[in-house]
Design brief:
Shape: globular
Radius of gyration: 19 Å
Mean pLDDT: 93
Number of helices: 12
Strand order of the largest sheet: 3-4-5-8-9-10-11-12
Distance between the termini: 33 Å
Number of strands: 12
Strand content: 15-25%
Largest sheet: 8 strands, parallel, barrel
Order of helices and strands: EEEHEHEEEHEHEHEHHEHHEHHH
Length: 342
């Protein structure tokens, strides 16, 4: 699989990454044997970029990923990313907050490293607290973690342009120019295009930062025009997402049907077309995909070789113009907790 890099000497990762969150929670039951099978299939297919976070399964996902990777013969070729900064109430997983304070981040990163049992190649602020007003303090913690060898590179998740720029400047000053922000992970798909409309995509390109696109298939909504939330597992969190409910779901299904039509013209699947579109947004853009079945690994990896004719790109732009999707990407309460807009 080809590598993608935002600037010479910057972090280089495979063009497609594996998102591991769903192997621990949020998308219904999964077994560790099934998760290991998918991880091994992804690695065998050339995927070398793997993404987790401390809150996924309250540490379970990091332990799961670490158990698979610690003894991998090509561990040095892999990029393992995790995140810290979201705090969950141990008595009520639905109650969450954001803590970007230096002390918390330093402790969280070390706990993640211990659970993984392998170095952290890329460490993200999972969400940005207080609108980024204290981002320089957070970067001081990241600089210390870099100096101590706890992490290898710094990322931000769901950050806006001013925060990205301030974090990059601060980190470069704190590390004598040796490190800037290496990656920004924001939601990005045909149905979620705020990284374009808010300038994040171009800011990352200008600054030499990888744009890591999570939920590039919109949590499966783009893969199947007939997706029925009622058929999902009772604890599947998509049941509570606005885009999967009522009139919004019907509207988004029509968009998914149009994607299906275009994919058929290319003898591809809708998921492959959705991923190929994200990949076409720039050489610094890297989608990470949540996969829980081996057949999905094969399907999604094949998207890296799918070339999109200008005609198809134009039709996608017409059908999926910014703001076309119906419904918010998270519930309003979660958007407020995480300080997200749109």
């Amino acid at each position: 699989m080809p590598l993608r890099q935002a600037r010479a000497g910057g972090l280089a990762v495979t063009a497609l990454g594996l998102g591991c969150m769903g192997m621990s929670e949020f998308y219904g039951p999964s077994t560790e044997a099934q998760a290991r099978e998918v991880m091994e299939a992804a690695l065998a297919s050339g995927v070398r970029f793997l993404d987790t976070a401390d809150v996924y399964g309250n540490g379970h996902n990091e332990r799961l990923l670490g158990a698979c990777l610690r003894e991998h013969p090509r561990r040095s070729d892999l990029t393992v990313a995790t995140k810290g900064g979201i705090v969950r109430d141990p008595q009520d997983a639905s109650r969450r907050g954001v803590d970007n304070s230096p002390g918390y981040l330093k402790d969280a990163a070390r706990r993640s490293r211990d659970r993984l049992g392998t170095p952290i190649d890329l460490y993200y602020l999972h969400r940005i607290a207080d609108g980024g007003r204290r981002i320089e303090d957070s970067m001081r913690a990241m600089a210390d973690l870099l100096a101590d060898g706890v992490i290898g590179a710094v990322g931000l998740s769901e950050a806006d342009v001013p925060t990205i720029c301030r974090a990059d400047v601060a980190l470069r000053q704190l590390t004598g120019g040796r490190h800037g922000v290496a990656a920004v992970q924001n939601e990005f798909s045909l149905l979620t295009r705020t990284v374009e409309t808010q300038g994040v995509l171009r800011a990352c390109e200008r600054l030499g930062i990888l744009l890591v696109a999570y939920s590039p298939i919109c949590r499966g909504l783009l893969a199947d025009p007939g997706l029925d939330p009622e058929a999902l597992a009772p604890d599947d969190f998509r049941r509570g997402l606005p885009r999967f409910q009522g009139d919004a779901l019907q509207h988004n299904r029509r968009l998914a049907s149009r994607l299906h039509e275009l994919a058929c013209q290319l003898q591809a699947t809708p998921a492959q077309l959705a991923l190929a579109w994200v990949l076409s947004r720039g050489p610094h853009v890297v989608p990470i995909v949540g996969m829980r079945q081996v057949r999905r690994v094969r399907e999604n990896v094949a998207a890296c070789a799918l070339e999109l004719p200008l005609r198809v790109l134009g039709e996608l732009e017409d059908a999926f113009a910014p703001g076309t999707a119906a419904g918010g990407r998270y519930a309003a309460s979660a958007m407020a907790v995480y300080g997200l807009s749109e």
